[in-house]
Specification:
Elements: E1 5-9, H1 14-25, E2 29-34, H2 37-50, E3 55-59, H3 65-73, E4 82-87, H4 103-131, E5 134-139, H5 152-171, E6 177-184, H6 191-195, H7 200-207, H8 215-226, E7 236-239
Helix pairs in contact: 1-8, 3-4, 4-5
The structure holds NADP nicotinamide-adenine-dinucleotide phosphate.
The site of NADP nicotinamide-adenine-dinucleotide phosphate has 32 residues, from helix 1, helix 4 and helix 6.
C-alpha cells in the first residue's frame, strides 16, 4: 500500500462523501470516518468496486475525545501514515434567534464543529510534524465570514474554524505542512435536513427557486487545493453559487429585500 492516505471526517454524506470519491478517483486511499457505519461501509464497497483504491470505514463520533484519540493512535498497519486530513464533519442545529435558541443545539454545534475538529487535528498533526509533511483542509463556511438572523452559534463556530486555520498556519510554519480553508456558500446536502431535525419539506424550501452548489463542486475544489505542488498553499477558498451573493442574499429572496 504505497498510495497516499487521507482521513476524511463526515464521510457518510454530502461534501465528505463526495470528497471520498474524488480522492479515490485520484488514487488516494481513504479513511472514511462518520457515526453512521452502514453508510460508510456501503461507500467502501462502491468505491473499491469502481476504483483501484482502498477505503477504511471508521465509525467515529468526533465529539468523543477518548475515542478519537484511541482510534487515530491505533490505526491498522498500513493505514498509519495520514498525509491528508479533511476536517469536514460538522452541522448546524436550529435557526432560532439567540434569545429563543436551544442550549443543547449550541452544545452540539460547538462540540462537533470546533472541539471535534480540534480533537481530530490533535491526533493527526503531531505525526505530520514528525515526518515534516502533510495537508490539513478545514471546512469552514461563508457563515464564518458573515452572519445571518438565527445563524448566531453556527456562524460563531465557523468563524472559529477560520481563525484556527490561520493560527495553525503560524504554528506549523517551518514545516512542509499546508493548512487550507474551504468556505462554501449554499450546498445542497443533508445539511438543512439536519438543521431542521429531519423536516425534509422545510429543508427543501431552502434550495427552492435557486441553484445551490453540489457536494461534488466542493470536493473538486478540495482536491484542487490538495493537489497543488507542495510549495503552494491555497489558504482560503470562498466558493459561492452564482445565484447567491452573500450569506443572506440569493436569487430567491433578493427582490423582497
Ligand atoms: P451533511 O450532508 O449533513 O454531512 C455532514 C457529515 O458530518 C455527515 O457525514 C455526518 O455523518 C458528519 N458528522 C456530523 N456530526 C458528526 C460527529 N459528531 N462525528 C462524526 N461525523 C459527524 O452536510 P455537508 O453540507 O456535507 O457538511 C459538511 C461540512 O461542510 C460541515 O462542516 C458544514 O458545516 C460545512 N458547510 C456546509 C454548507 C452547506 O450549505 N451544506 C456550507 C458551508 C459549509 P454522521 O451523521 O454519519 O456522523
Amino acid at each position: 500500500m504505497n498510495r497516499k492516505i487521507a482521513l476524511i471526517t463526515g464521510a457518510s454524506s454530502g461534501i465528505g462523501k463526495a470528497c471520498v470519491e474524488e480522492f479515490a478517483k485520484n488514487g488516494i486511499n481513504v479513511i472514511a470516518a462518520a457515526r453512521r457505519l452502514e453508510k460508510i461501509t456501503e461507500l467502501k464497497d462502491y468505491i473499491e468496486e469502481k476504483y483501484n483504491t482502498k477505503v477504511l470505514p471508521m465509525q467515529l463520533n468526533v465529539t468523543n475525545r477518548n475515542l478519537v484519540d484511541d482510534y487515530l493512535n491505533h490505526l491498522p498497519k498500513n493505514w498509519e501514515d495520514i498525509e491528508i486530513l479533511i476536517n469536514n464533519a460538522g452541522l448546524s442545529k436550529g435557526l432560532e434567534r439567540l434569545q429563543d435558541g436551544k442550549i443543547d443545539n449550541w452544545e452540539k454545534m460547538i462540540d462537533t464543529n470546533i472541539k471535534g475538529l480540534l480533537y481530530v487535528t490533535k491526533a493527526v498533526l503531531p505525526k505530520m510534524v514528525e515526518k515534516n509533511s502533510g495537508t490539513v483542509v478545514n471546512l469552514a463556511s461563508i457563515a464564518g465570514h458573515e452572519t445571518y438572523i438565527g445563524g448566531n452559534v453556527y456562524c460563531a463556530t465557523k468563524a472559529a474554524v477560520l481563525q484556527l486555520s490561520k493560527a495553525l498556519r503560524m504554528d506549523v510554519l517551518g514545516y512542509d505542512i499546508r493548512i487550507v480553508s474551504i468556505d462554501p456558500g449554499m450546498v445542497e446536502t443533508e445539511f438543512s435536513i439536519v438543521r431542521f431535525d429531519g423536516d425534509k419539506e422545510k429543508a427543501n424550501k431552502v434550495y427552492e427557486n435557486t441553484s445551490p452548489l453540489t457536494a461534488q463542486d466542493i470536493a473538486e475544489a478540495v482536491w484542487f487545493a490538495v493537489s497543488r505542488p507542495k510549495h503552494v498553499t491555497i489558504e482560503d477558498m470562498v466558493i459561492m453559487p452564482t445565484q447567491q451573493a452573500s450569506a443572506i442574499l440569493n436569487t430567491k429572496n433578493y427582490k423582497k429585500l
